[in-house]
Structures are given as C-alpha cells and as structure tokens.
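Appendix B. Raw example, untouched.
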Amino acid sequence: MAKYPYTVLPGEITPVYKPLIPVLLNCKKTHKITPPINALVDSGADVCFCAKNIGLWLGIQFKKKRPYTFTTANKTPFQAMKEEVILYTAGTRLTCPFFFTDTLPKETPVILGQQGFFENFRITFDVRSKIIEIL
C-alpha cells in the first residue's frame, strides 16, 4: 500500500488539487530510466499516455511505429504511438503499454489510465483528506 498527498496547484479562483504520484519509466530496449516524474492518476483515461519527448529521451524509435488516434474529453482528436515500458510506482514494477504523443500539457507529461495502471491496483481518491491510496 502507498499513500500520496494530492498536489496543490494555483487556480483562478481557489487552489486546485491534483492526484499526482511519482513514477519512473524504463525502456526495456535501451535500459534507460527516467528520474522521478509526477504522473496524473486519471480514471477517465482509457490508456496510459506519456509525452513523446520523454520517449525520445528513453531512446524509443518512433519512426516505424503505427500511430493510433485518440479523442480528448473535448472531442479533439490526437495521435500517439505505442511502446511497452516498465513503470515503477507505489513500490511496484509493471510492464505497461504507453501511448506517446506531442499533445500532453507540460504540467502532466505522464497520464496513468485504465489499461496498464488501474487494472493492476485498487485506487482510492480521498479528496476530503487530500490523499490518494494505491493498493
């Protein structure tokens, strides 16, 4: 079990609390591992996403990858390329498919979604106490 405090960010009217947790990503082909990155735990995301520049840093070769089309919550389509990486978080090591894209906000370069992340844990969002619990 791991518990993480919500991250407090400035908002236009009041502070915004985000469920961000530290992760490391490891490319199996190059053996490169990122430093800790704050990832958004997003129950509305179908899959896990990562900024393409992180994938390039890991040494992932995107030229021969097939692009997949996704749609954001506001119905904007975007493309991403799939690569399996090793995800380290909450004291666990998982092989996880990630979809790498240029369209993620700078503030959330890694998004943890249903396939690959939620399916491996029981996650509690305790907004009142500002704690995320991952079992």
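End of appendix B.
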